[in-house]
Amino acid sequence: QVQLVESGGGLVQAGGSLRLSCAASGRTFSSYAMGWFRQAPGKEREFVAAISWSGAGTHYIDSVKGRFTISRDNAKNTVLLQMNSLKPEDTAVYYCNAKKYSTMYWGQGTQVTVSS
């Protein structure tokens, strides 16, 4: 069992930055691939970024490449999403995700609002 708690969301002007943090419980955190998803009002939840269990591999949706960076610290059971050059279209609830084989866990989400 893994419990995930996101933090770091808020209101920011376009062009600004935010850093989201996801704190995970459980001694097996380092065996999970971690990811960030987001859901805007009236839209389906979409993948944003993912990082392998070791941190060696990362993957991003095209719209955030060059602006967002995902990282993890297995000693601290945390995964971060550094978001720079934010755009109004990045406004959404951001969810942390842990995945190993067919098992997935979700956090409760944190709101990110980017004003124009």
Structure, explained:
With 116 residues, the protein is mostly beta strands. Helix content is 0%, strand content 53%. It contains no helices and eleven strands. It is globular, with a radius of gyration of 13 Å. The N and C termini lie far apart (40 Å). The model has no long low-confidence stretch (mean pLDDT 96).
Write the layout of secondary structure elements.
Blueprint: E1 4-7, E2 10-13, E3 18-24, E4 33-39, E5 46-51, E6 58-60, E7 68-73, E8 78-83, E9 92-100, E10 103-106, E11 110-115
Parallel strand pairs: 2-11
Antiparallel strand pairs: 1-3, 3-8, 4-5, 4-9, 5-6, 7-8, 9-10, 9-11
Low-confidence blocks of residues:
none
The shape is globular
Secondary-structure-based class equals mainly beta
Following the backbone from N to C, one meets helices and strands in this order, namely: EEEEEEEEEEE
Helix content: under 10%
E-strand count = 11
Q: How far is the N terminus from the C terminus?
A: 40 Å
Describe the sheet with the most strands. Answer: 7 strands, mixed
Strand content: over 45%
Q: Rounded to an integer, what's the Rg over CA atoms?
A: 13 Å
